[in-house]
Design brief:
The complex is a heterodimer of chains A (680) and B (106). Chain A is 69% helix and 3% strand. Chain A has 680 residues and is an all-alpha fold. Among the domains of chain A are: 232 residues, no CATH class; 57 residues; 26 residues, no CATH class. Chain B is mainly alpha-helical. Chain B is built from 4 helices and no strands. In chain B, helix 2 runs antiparallel to helix 3. Chain B is elongated, with a radius of gyration of 17 Å. The mean pLDDT of chain B is 88. Chains A and B meet through helix 28 of A and helix 2 of B. Chain A: This is Proton-translocating NADH-quinone oxidoreductase, chain L. Chain A: It is a multi-pass membrane protein. Chain A: Keywords: Membrane, Transmembrane, Transmembrane helix.
Chain lengths: 680, 106
């Protein structure tokens, strides 16, 4: 029996090797190293499928591979820092998603980058390889510190790729913004990692000695934690730790108020946007919460904060997407909004719903971005939707796949997004009936549904329907197989992924066993003890309430309301924009339009805040340069000065050495004599 | 072992050894010629030998004498190497003055 889990590191290392190859000899390879990346991600994808099949066969792995620091016996607790792998149903599913999307993005890049004659391709493919490798390392991480390291690598790669066209003014600035804003969140994450290590003496995600288990035992009074600061009550302290780690999540998953980097990140090449939004960077935050959900489920306050941030972000970002003129900008705001839904689900105790939406969103958002990439190729890199129109007949493959993705994004039955979004709203509703804060999150999520449907179809109608509005739109550049292939694969997935988890159908018709994802994440086919959705529900704070008609009635009402709202949004978009020559209706919004168009002036607010805190930063800088660096430099200058003086002893004259030796001997004898009392 | 040798108190041997050692040390510290160095070091080692033999006699133990033989053999080897070094020194600098070469490499 071959042990498939010993190949899990290879899943991470294959893209890493493609990074090294592209970086080292990429310029001598055909297509700038693209084939290396494609081969590596294909290899990782196949291995991931194998891992998925093995996990489905009832096996799982939680292994420490390499301990790189062992503080055994030095501190009050025995802390070991290590690298390891944790393969359970959640990470196996995520591995497949990430490798599949990465593979398709690599293939698409052949069309988007190589065929368009971009320069610097080895750098591009190296970045893609490292990006994929970092995300895969993050997915299989078995402890929080390792997860943090790969989290940071993901951030670094996003910086490198968003700023790919570094000769233009926009991309470098957007890359810096993405890096700094996410770093601001990661700062809290880092403090959280240290807090977890100090509190529990371990950062493992799973196993009997893992921090969620220890926290659970300590809260139940069956054990104690190694440390809490100054006698703070345990529940309070765990909430603080949870919120600290959440800082990193809010930054990476672009939740309010740290979402501002994401729309700017559209400056990067479109395939990179697809990778960032669907499978890597932004997904990392939500995945992290799901990974340590056993910890978050213990702290109701944190869950409520997550749910509220999520619901608010879902609505908030959706409203901004209403008025954007550029294709990718609309998609950017939809991403923020959709990740808001996932956060809402996690906060509402809907662990499976969140992972479900993460899965479906990965496929339909990758599809939409690659479709947008195809349109951008066709439009000679003009992204303004008002210059498009009528592309439907010119590029049917792109149109129909894009339409599938849009229907999924808008949550129209039976496309993937309908099932996952409906489940999120259902979970938020049934748990929210007993919890006002959660109900607020639910209502905001519900309000975002028609808004989402509206802006999605505004985008579709403006881009593909009506009369062509420019010469380029009348004669678009054709795209090749390497664009159509990935689109087709994702188009099918966007249409059918929802069927892996038809909970409403199961509840209404009473069919057993068609909620595959629920069973999968509930360790139905095996997994790791303590990492199942049932366990999370048991330790979570929520109880369910139902509207009229009990569970079935609530399911039907919830689904009908969200589908009805989505269709309403779609119809409004249809009436306004599905005409031969659509006009801007946003002017009717008056002043609101400006507010929305300028993203609620949040960027300005953040810049204003940055200027207000300039003095603090300046003071910190002076302190750092003057005091901290001053001490270090002072110590080194003492050494330097002493060294330069003592160096004179080494004259190279043997006689002097002999003299010094003799004098030393005499001094030693005298000292021994005086202390030993020879002269008395 | 003669009665004369055993009747001399060990302090005399130690005084002799100290005197020889100091003469050798004086040579090392004041001379600049490498050959003088070698001879002075030889004197210092023989001062140690005198001590060894004296204490061997005093305690009636042969270990010290054996050690003295070892030191003599060692001194012979050391002189062989030392003279080799002095030859190289002379070839490179034209003098045997130890204060002239002051760097390990040049």
């Amino acid at each position: 029996m071959i042990d498939v889990f010993s190949y899990v590191p290879a899943i991470v290392l294959l893209p890493f090797f493609s990074f090294l190859i592209a970086l080292g000899v990429g310029k001598h390879l055909p297509k700038g190293g693209a084939f290396g990346g494609i081969a590596a991600t294909a290899g990782s994808f196949l291995l991931s499928l194998w891992v998925l099949a093995t996990v489905a066969g009832g096996e799982a792995a939680n292994r420490t591979l390499y301990t790189w620091a062992d503080a055994g016996g030095i501190g009050p607790t025995d802390i070991e820092l290590s690298f390891g792998i944790l393969v359970d149903p959640l990470s196996a599913l995520m591995l497949v998603i990430v490798t599949l999307v990465a593979l398709l993005v690599h293939v698409f890049s052949l069309g988007y980058m190589n065929d368009e004659g971009e320069t610097g391709l080895p750098r591009y493919y190296a970045g893609l390889g490292l990006f994929t490798a970092s995300m895969l390392g993050f997915v299989v991480a078995d402890n929080l510190l390792m997860a943090f390291m790969f989290f940071e690598l993901v951030g670094l790669c996003s910086y490198l790729l968003i700023g790919f066209h570094f000769r233009e003014p926009g991309p470098p600035s957007a890359a810096k913004k993405a890096f700094l804003v996410t770093r601001f969140g990661d700062y809290f994450f880092l403090v959280g990692v240290v807090a977890v290590l100090a509190t529990f003496g371990t950062a493992q995600f799973a196993g009997a000695e893992s921090f969620p288990v220890l926290a659970e035992a300590a809260l139940a009074g069956e054990g104690s934690v190694a440390w809490t600061p100054g006698g703070v009550e345990l529940q309070t302290w765990l909430t603080v730790v949870g919120l600290l780690v959440l800082g990193g999540v809010v930054g990476k998953s672009a939740q309010f108020p740290l979402h501002t980097w994401l729309p700017d990140a559209m400056e990067g090449p479109t395939p990179v946007s697809a990778l960032i939004h669907a499978a890597t960077m932004v997904a990392a935050g939500v995945y992290l919460v799901a990974r340590m959900y056993g910890f978050y489920a213990l702290t109701p306050t944190t869950l409520a904060v997550i749910a509220f941030i999520g619901g608010f972000t879902a609505l908030f970002a959706a409203t901004m997407g209403l008025v954007k003129d550029e294709l990718k900008q609309v998609l950017a705001y939809s991403t923020i909004s959709q990740y808001g839904y996932m956060m809402l689900a996690l906060g509402a105790g809907g662990y499976v719903a969140a992972v479900f939406h993460l899965t479906t969103h990965a496929f339909f958002k990758a599809l939409l971005f690659l479709g947008a990439g195809a349109v951008i190729i066709a439009m000679h890199h003009n992204e303004d939707m008002w210059d498009m129109g009528g592309l439907k007949s010119k590029m049917p493959v792109t149109y129909y796949t894009f339409l599938a993705g849009s229907l999924a994004l808008a949550g129209i039955f039976p496309f993937a997004g309908f099932w996952s979004k409906d489940e999120i709203l259902y979970e938020a509703l049934v748990h929210g009936l007993n919890d006002p804060l959660l109900l607020g999150g639910y209502l905001m999520g519900l309000l975002a549904v028609p808004v989402t449907a509206f802006y999605t179809f505004r985008m579709v109608f403006l881009t593909f329907h009506g009369e062509p509005r420019t010469d380029t739109a009348r004669d678009p550049e054709p795209v090749r197989w390497n664009v159509k292939g990935p689109l087709t694969v994702l188009g099918v997935l966007a249409a059918v992924t929802g069927f892996i988890n038809m909970v409403p159908v199961q509840k209404v018709l009473g069919l057993e066993g068609i909620d595959l994802l629920h069973l999968w994440l509930d360790n139905h086919w095996g997994g790791i003890e303590g990492l199942s959705s049932h366990h999370y529900a048991d330790i979570g704070p929520y109880s369910s309430g139902y509207l009229v008609g009990g569970e079935v009635g609530t399911v039907l009402v919830g689904a009908a309301v969200s589908l009805g709202l989505a269709l309403a949004g779609l119809l409004v978009a249809w009436r306004l924009y599905n005409v031969p020559s659509p006009t801007e209706h946003t002017a009717k919004l008056g002043g609101i339009k400006d507010v929305l168009y300028n993203n609620y002036y949040l960027d300005e607010l953040q810049v204003w805040l940055a200027y207000r805190t300039e003095d603090v930063a300046g003071g910190a800088n002076t302190f750092d340069q003057g005091i901290i660096d001053g001490v270090v430099n002072g110590v080194s200058s003492v050494s330097l000065f002493g060294g330069s003086r003592i160096r004179r002893l080494q004259s190279g004259v043997v006689s002097q050495y002999a003299t010094l030796l003799t004098l030393g001997l005499v001094a030693l004898l005298l000292a021994l004599g005086v202390t030993g009392g020879w002269f008395l | 072992m003669t009665a004369v040798a055993s009747s001399i108190p060990p302090e005399w041997y130690l005084l002799l050894a100290t005197a020889v050692f100091c003469i050798g040390l004086f040579g090392v510290l004041t001379r600049r010629d490498a050959l003088y160095f070698l001879m002075s070091v030889e004197l210092m080692m023989n001062a140690a030998n005198i001590n060894f033999v004296a204490f061997a006699l005093y305690y009636g133990d042969l270990t010290g004498q054996v050690f003295a033989l070892f030191v003599i053999a060692l001194a012979a080897a050391e002189v062989a190497i030392g003279i080799g070094i002095i030859l190289v020194l002379y070839r490179n600098f034209g003098v045997t003055d130890v204060t002239v070469p002051t760097e390990m490499r040049w």
